Amino acid sequence: xxxxxxxxxxxxxxxxxxxLREVNGLIAEGKPIxxxxxxxxxxxxxxxxxxxxxxSLTDPKAHxxxxxxxxxxxxxxxxxxxxxxxxxxxxxxxxxLPLLGSKEGIMHxxxxxxxxxxxxxxxxxxxxxxxxxxKLVGGVPNYYDxxxxxxxxxxxxxLEAQDLSKVKLMWLNYPHMPTGAKGNLEMFKELVAFAKRNxxxxxxxxxxxxxLNADQISILNIEGAKEVALELNSLSxxxxxxxxxxxxxxxxxxxxxxxxxxxxxxxxGMFYSLQKGAVKALELSNGWYDRINEQYxxxxxxxxxxxxxxxxxxDRNAVGMFVWAKVPDHVESVEAFIDEVLYNQSIFITxxxxxxxxxxxxxxxxxxxxxxxxxxxINRF
Length: 381
Description:
With 381 residues, this protein is an alpha/beta fold. Helix content is 38%, strand content 14%. Helix 3 runs parallel beside helix 9 (272-282) and helix 10 (286-309) packs parallel to helix 12 (371-379).
């Protein structure tokens, strides 16, 4: 019998991949499941984005292999987007690399910079893919605590007190998922200085910067950050284009070139029409963000009402497309609580434990649910 690679022994199937089979099984049985677990935008992309996609399908170049580094007009649109919204200057020919989704970038960056045995600083709580990719490429996860009492920000003094001699890379994610912590420029400034002192590559994963968040910041706002930092971003959340799989990474020419070495051996470029649609999305006016956030704001107020029904605590200053809520003290097991809600009220909510041990007493609600469904969920309690 042919055995799978030993690297697969270091990881498990992604939580949502497994749990959604269970949820879909309940739906098949006729259960009226309301899915509040997944951050998959349910609203449509802008009309002009869809038009740019469809009209480009007849272009003679549309069905050919595309450049490994994307269309020049897409890279230019990304540079203009970052200049306009983040006040960051990037050279579009050398400091930007479009990706087939920013999740792809997590793997490509890890493959480009990690050797077997290198340690990676990973937030706890944080996106589980940081851990799984680190293990798949032979790296060693080294978790750093994010705690409610510190506003879910890194404790740099605690980090500095560790043995960092084997640390090569550090994952950041601000605005933060799952907690909704905003982060700030002073934090980024301290982290850049920390990275320079310890020869660590910082990667800020930044897909939630426009959702219910008025202030867009980037780690690249900090002077000298390109020497030690990359930033990932995505069109998935901001533009309702999750299934399009369009992301990008920004940084110094040297760092971007290292990622290109990996990416160019992994795919043959992004579909032309997707790139054309992406250009149009990046050119949208501020009215787009206002309209989307108006909907998310209404949904969030209803989610707060639902969280109140469950006696949960939450931070009204948090941003992003989730509500991170602490369960009441009388709940002994969050996982059992989640399953009780799933099987008794037919509502799927994400347990905070999947994001790390510091999420053990929390649950996460997605705002990617229509208002009428959230109202229905409230009524079920």
